[in-house]
Design brief:
81 residues; 4 helices
């Protein structure tokens, strides 16, 4: 996401969309992945941020709070927490 913003001029929101919704579509998974909506696979990360820009420009810390894979929380999945 950082490289997308720095090298290609994407906004943090565009970079986040590119790593979620658009990535799922490119991989042929758009019907089941890429968005948080009922009926989709619950693979997601819960971040301790107020705005997507903190994911792109907040170097040196991991804002990861929780990781959920297949609807189940992964214990100790966030490094540095």
């Amino acid at each position: 996401m950082s490289l997308g913003c720095l090298l290609f001029g994407l906004t943090p929101e565009e970079a986040l969309r590119g790593t979620t919704t658009h990535a799922a579509r490119v991989l042929g998974l758009a019907e089941s992945h890429g968005r948080i909506v009922p009926g989709r696979v619950a693979d997601l990360v819960v971040w301790d941020v107020e705005h997507p820009r903190e994911l792109v420009y907040g170097m040196g810390r991991s804002p990861c709070l929780r990781v959920v894979v297949g609807g189940a929380e992964r214990a100790r999945a966030c490094l540095g927490r």
